[in-house]
Amino acid sequence: MQEWEPYVQYGMLRVRETSCCGEYEWCCEGGLYFVLRRNGEGYEATPRSRYAQARPVWEALIRNHRHTSQRQRDGKPTSSGCDRARPSAGKS
Ligand SMILES: [Zn+2]
User: Fold this and answer.
1) Angle (CA) 14 26 54, round 5°
2) Neighbours of ion ligand 1 (CB under 5 A)
3) What is the pTM of this model?
4) Segment 2-5 long-range contacts (CB within 8 Å, at least 24 positions apart)
5) Ligand 1 center–CA 58 separation, angstroms
6) CA-to-CA distance for 46 and 27, rounded, in angstroms?
7) Structural Rg of the chain based on CA atoms
8) Å from CA of 20 to ligand 1 middle
């Protein structure tokens, strides 16, 4: 399981990417990378690390995340952007 810790901002936060439905954000802060997610009223983050270590965490999260109905807008099914996150080839 991925470990999450309460997010505390240390420096200039830059959001580089957002998952298809906005659940996760790929962030860089002070040269270290991590994934940010909303948790109720606050935020949680994965441990900060170098790009090469943090990137697989991000990719696994966006590949595996579920689209919950409460995040859908206007009652529409998941937007076409979400198709991006599905693995296009390989194991299934
Ligand atoms: Zn999504």
Assistant:
1) 110
2) 20-21, 67, 82
3) 0.71
4) 2/46, 2/57, 2/60, 2/61, 3/46, 3/47, 4/37, 4/39, 4/44, 4/45, 4/46, 5/44, 5/45, 5/46, 5/47
5) 13
6) 10
7) 14
8) 4
**Tell me, what amino acid is at 35?**
V
Give the domain range for residue 24.
5-70
Structural domain count, the chain: 1
pLDDT (tens digit, 9 = 90+) per residue, 7-21? 999 899 999 999 988
Residue 76 placed within a domain = no
What's the pLDDT tens digit per position in 34-77? Answer: 999 998 889 999 999 999 999 999 999 999 888 765 544 554 44
Q: Is residue 16 part of a domain?
A: yes
